[in-house]
Amino acid sequence: MQFAAPLVPGTLIRRYKRFLADVRLGSGREVTAHCANPGAMMGLAAPGLKVWLEPNADPRRKLRFAWRLVETPDGFVGIDTAVPNRVVGEALAAGRVAELSAYRTVRREVRYAGNSRVDFVLSGDGLPDAHVEVKNVHLMRTAGLAEFPDSVTARGARHLDALAGVAAAGGRAVLLYCVQRTDCTALALARDIDPRYAAAAARAAAAGVETLAYAAAVGRDGIALDRPLRMDN
């Protein structure tokens, strides 16, 4: 996934109302950027951080900038929670997720389990359909260890239970964590932040839900799914 326009650097002044951030550009100009992230953004929203914004000239948009990245001493962190579905979708279509590369057809946002929608359903000759749910990850509290979630997520627990239902019925169900960081080698569940999510993950694993973790290559030009990570659980 390539960014639509070259990113511009700035210094974060504050993030507020979840979806807004004030940023000081290198010229000294202060702008308000859209923050496409409703989560806690623990460790990624402190004033003074170096951030990267994507400008746009679309007159239909109220804000002329969108916050895309945080720069750390060890690389970049993507903060847009819509990005993982895009980069995972590209990787699935190109057969770059090794565990799922045998599938040839990728469908997005498929309704299942009542009123739920799963991010992807994969189909292939002689293979059971694979229901794939994608989760965005950018929390790191211990060097090299990504964690999910960064806040309580009842919705995430419901997704796990829905996937468990697919697996229990004999289907293939996969939860794929997309880590938008370039400085992690493993992923673990943040059990202290959301014990109910951790319990739902245990139920899902017992039902046969598969768990994958992949790091993204994050840079100023764009973001792409990159390499598998070890699961520490």
Structure description:
It is a single chain. Helix content is 17%, strand content 43%. With 233 residues, the chain is α/β, with parallel strands linked by helices.
Short description:
This protein is 17% helix and 43% strand.
Q: What gyration radius follows from the Cα positions, in whole Å?
A: 18 Å
Class by helix and strand content?
alpha/beta
Percent in helix: 10-25%
**Largest sheet, strands/sense/barrel:** 6 strands, mixed
User: What general form does the structure show?
Assistant: globular
Low-confidence stretches: none
Features:
233 residues; alpha/beta; 6-stranded mixed sheet; 5-stranded mixed β-barrel; 3 helices; 17% helix
